């Protein structure tokens, strides 16, 4: 009964935020009016409605995908601080995107904004860069047994290298307008994907959630201990690698369209864990709902804070994430490691 009530709470909050997100904007439209205009309307009203619907759908997709990725990483690494952002996967994907745009010419800058002309090359380089980052973190952390401290130190080392590489790339290909556009793109904005692109991201999020849900039994065993997992027929190393590849692919696609959005994969699984417990069969769907609600809420705050200026959701979530990490560190200090 408690789990059912928690699911209903998460779904209710998510639905309320989604509908409210459709009504936020310079023009006064109700959520039902927006849906009708986006699906069956034409003219300027339909254009505005599709932009709002695309933004809301992209928020749900990004939040859900990052949240389930974070839940899976926390399980296979047995580390409460693990998430795509803290492992540096989005930042590494951003380097891949910068290489594709600034070196390979896969994008152009129009009125100071980055326009991707070859999304396949961008996603491919983002995936390869992010995968290399994840493998380096896993290798360095494995040297000391995947403890909380070793994973954190490995993340710091690898992230520093990637940040230096991105800075070097911007310096070597010094172009004020192009560099500024790439930097602005890394802020993370759910308003960038188009109407159909947002639904493509939703499909990526759904596929990610289903994949991680299919491996939930293995995550439960690894979370208890590697020896328990091995005796039950689960190979922790293989599960860790396949999970990393799946997370990297999903994050690379998201970053290619929205930029870097952090802390959702860290915060959402912990919020869901408080509501439904640690069983990953229940935790992964709850994390998806919590993550989607977080990104929707952050986007609404960014749109209402200083209209008509829209603060990118990546910036808003960074403030929330910093406070959440501090709270989590104090909790770890009080109760011990994960």
Top keywords for this entry?
338 residues, mainly alpha, ABC transporter involved in vitamin B12 uptake, BtuC, 14 helices, 2 strands, 2% strand, globular, transmembrane helix, ABC_BtuC-like, ABC_transptr_permease_BtuC, transport
Question: What does this 3D model show about the protein?
Answer:
It comes from Pyrobaculum islandicum (strain DSM 4184 / JCM 9189 / GEO3). It is found in: Cell membrane. The chain crosses the membrane at residues 52-73, 85-108, 120-141, 148-174, 194-214, 244-271, 309-330. Its main location: membrane. With 338 residues, the chain is mainly alpha-helical. The protein has one domain: ABC transporter involved in vitamin B12 uptake, BtuC (Orthogonal Bundle). 76% of the residues lie in helices and 2% in strands. It contains 14 helices and 2 strands, in the order ααααββαααααααααα. The protein has helices spanning 2-23, 31-40, 44-77, 89-102, 119-142, 148-172, 176-185, 195-214, 216-224, 226-231, 236-258, 264-276, 280-304, 313-335, and strands spanning 107-110, 113-116. The chain is globular and about 60 Å long. It starts with a helix and ends with a helix. The mean pLDDT is 84.
């Amino acid at each position: 009964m408690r789990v059912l009530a928690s699911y209903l709470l998460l779904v209710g909050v998510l639905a309320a935020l989604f509908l409210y997100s459709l009504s936020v904007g310079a023009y006064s439209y109700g959520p039902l009016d927006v849906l009708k205009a986006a699906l069956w309307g034409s003219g300027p009203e339909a254009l505005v409605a599709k932009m709002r619907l695309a933004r809301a759908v992209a928020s749900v997709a990004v939040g859900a995908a990052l949240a389930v990725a974070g839940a899976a990483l926390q399980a296979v690494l047995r580390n409460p601080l693990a998430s795509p952002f803290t492992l540096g996967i989005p930042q590494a994907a951003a380097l891949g995107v910068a290489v594709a745009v600034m070196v390979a010419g896969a994008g152009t800058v129009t009125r100071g904004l980055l326009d991707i002309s070859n999304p396949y090359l961008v996603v491919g380089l983002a995936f390869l860069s992010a995968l290399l980052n994840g493998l380096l973190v896993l290798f360095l952390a494995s040297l000391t047994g995947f403890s909380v401290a070793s994973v954190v130190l490995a993340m710091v080392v690898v992230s520093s290298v990637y940040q230096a590489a991105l800075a070097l790339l911007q310096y070597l290909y010094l172009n004020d307008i192009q560099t500024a556009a790439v930097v602005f793109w890394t802020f993370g904005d759910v308003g960038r994907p188009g109407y159909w692109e947002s639904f493509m991201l939703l499909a990526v999020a759904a596929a990610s959630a289903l994949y991680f849900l299919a491996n939930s039994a293995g995550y439960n065993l690894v979370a208890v201990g590697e020896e328990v997992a091995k005796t039950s027929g689960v190979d922790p190393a293989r599960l860790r690698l396949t999970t990393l590849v799946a997370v990297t692919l999903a994050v690379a696609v998201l970053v290619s369209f929205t930029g870097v959005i952090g802390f959702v994969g860290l915060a959402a699984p912990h919020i869901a864990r408080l509501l439904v417990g640690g069983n990953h069969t229940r935790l992964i769907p709850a994390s998806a709902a919590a993550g989607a609600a977080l990104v929707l809420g952050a986007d609404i705050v960014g749109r209402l804070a200083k209209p008509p200026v829209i603060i990118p959701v990546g910036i808003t979530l960074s403030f929330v994430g910093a406070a959440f990490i501090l709270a989590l560190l104090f909790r770890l200090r009080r109760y011990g490691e994960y």
